[in-house]
Amino acid sequence: MLKEKTIRTSKHNELIDITSDIRLMIRESDIDEGVCHIFVPHTTAAVTINEKADPAVARDIANDLERLVPDSPAFTHAEGNSDAHVKTTLTGTSEFLIISGGEPVLGIWQAVFFCEFDGPRTRRYVARISGS
Amino acid sequence: MLKEKTIRTSKHNELIDITSDIRLMIRESDIDEGVCHIFVPHTTAAVTINEKADPAVARDIANDLERLVPDSPAFTHAEGNSDAHVKTTLTGTSEFLIISGGEPVLGIWQAVFFCEFDGPRTRRYVARISGS
Amino acid sequence: MLKEKTIRTSKHNELIDITSDIRLMIRESDIDEGVCHIFVPHTTAAVTINEKADPAVARDIANDLERLVPDSPAFTHAEGNSDAHVKTTLTGTSEFLIISGGEPVLGIWQAVFFCEFDGPRTRRYVARISGS
Hints:
The structure is a homotrimer of 132-residue chains. The first copy, chain A, has 132 residues and is α+β, with helices and mostly antiparallel strands. Chain A has one domain (2-131): Jelly Rolls (Sandwich), CATH 2.60.120.460. Helix content of chain A is 27%, strand content 38%. Chain A has three helices and eight strands. Chain A has helices spanning 19-29, 55-68, 82-91, and strands at 2-8, 14-17, 34-39, 45-51, 94-100, 103-104, 110-116, 122-131. In chain A, the strands form two sheets. A five-stranded antiparallel sheet of chain A has the order 1-8-3-5-6, covered by helices on one side. The two termini of chain A are 13 Å apart. Chains A and B meet through strand 4, helix 2 and strand 5 of A and helix 3 and strand 8 of B.
């Protein structure tokens, strides 16, 4: 089952918790045992799994990726957002979740975050849920 | 088939070769052709695939991630381990292996490494092995 | 269905668009709905998904990974290519594509790139295409 979701980002760099939407997609699929493949069809946005308990963690990650990959005069891409493309490759545009008992297998502190690196924009992601 | 394994790490930052345990899980599954999805349910630990032949490689990777993402006064997360969270997002909490002929498809130098970024701790990882 | 492809790289660091070969593999599989798992069996090469429209993006990514992970006297691996191993862990040796309607689900600007970090060499990658 293929699902698509639109998401509106509000900052230039931010991580947005999308776990509840992913959980809903998995429940709607009625698949108890399987895998959920999440894919971001953008080149300046990504997806990661990290801590949700303290929202400071998501901000620290977004800010530290800024520090690691600042905009630079060495970049030659005419659109001027090569830093966002590098962050996308470092973070990755996909994640999978193992499904067991109708729920994603996630650690107690884990959440799935949509990563905006060149916003604000209207974005989307795709999820495929399959049983075995 | 879903398997879970506990692992005890002994350093603050280290990569631990878990390939033999993964191979055993795949053999126990009796699945000849399929995919093994490996997932780390932590937010300051990850999994990567890299060279096993020279143990210096795993140490160089752990040390260079320290250099890339040092602890910083800019971090706001109260637990003080945001560097470990950033390393987790850069490395990723999951990997998949293609299974062919009952064995994971791996290059001759490749091994699967559990990545501890905030140890020592007792950790775990989950593997799902499915045929096609 | 398991496919393997050999690729000849021509530079020390480069990203090579392999999307047309992946599309061909998917078409040959006759699988309309499923997942394509792509795996690079090397420890100094990787795979990423990023922008193809402007070739400057792929060059900017390769160059910026050079900036992020330069060769260093701190590395202890005797072969002297630990920077390439670190880049491999940061980028990742695998990607999956969701298949829908017989085609990979990709954004309009997205392409799949083989990432050479220690070339030029003869390399290979493996793709497994499975339906649901």
